[in-house]
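Colleagues,

For the teaching module next term, I've prepared a clean inverse folding example: a structure given as tokens, and then the sequence designed for it. I'd like students to try predicting residues themselves before seeing the answer, so please don't circulate the second half yet.
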């Protein structure tokens, strides 16, 4: 997020020549007012800080045996991270849900690639200004599908964003763990 803040502050142009995924997609290209994606380059998301609101996190066995204080500390750190990410996306003017919509129940069932992205209209509606040199690439050099591009209608996007806002409100207004919010 720190790099993203600098990209936003200095209005840096971002050019994706190979791949921009994970933190690059979450915090760098979202922070730029001008993103160009070269032919054959890949852009994809696979989750963000609010990911635990949609699916249980894989927990190492050492955390399963955590004390009550350690578990409380873990949940507090997650709360801090989620709030930091929400603040970041408010600062840059992009909808934070971009990082996790592909994990929502309505899309997760149809997802067949490790990363996800959205058609250019959806990207724009979420607040991004990305220009692709050609059609959005979704395959690796070996032709393996790496990115599933979701084409979302306005109504489906609105529905997914409403669901996301509800999950955030439920989480923010409760002392529930992220596990409790998932199961609601």
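(Answer key — instructors only)
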């Amino acid at each position: 997020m720190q790099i993203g803040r600098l990209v936003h502050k200095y209005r840096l142009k971002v050019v994706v020549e190979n791949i921009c995924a994970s933190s690059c997609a979450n915090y760098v290209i979202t922070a730029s007012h001008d993103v160009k994606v070269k032919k054959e380059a890949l852009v994809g998301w696979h989750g963000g800080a609010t990911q635990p609101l949609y699916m249980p996190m894989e927990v190492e066995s050492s955390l399963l045996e955590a004390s009550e204080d350690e578990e409380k500390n873990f949940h507090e750190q997650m709360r801090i991270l989620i709030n930091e990410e929400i603040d970041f996306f408010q600062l840059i003017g992009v909808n934070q849900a971009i990082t996790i919509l592909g994990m929502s129940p309505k899309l997760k069932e149809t997802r067949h690639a490790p990363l996800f992205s959205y058609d250019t209209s959806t990207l724009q509606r979420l607040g991004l200004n990305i220009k692709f040199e050609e059609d959005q690439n979704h395959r690796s050099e070996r032709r393996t599908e790496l990115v599933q591009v979701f084409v979302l209608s306005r109504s489906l996007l609105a529905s997914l964003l409403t669901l996301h806002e509800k999950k955030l409100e439920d989480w923010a207004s409760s002392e529930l763990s992220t596990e409790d919010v998932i199961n609601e």
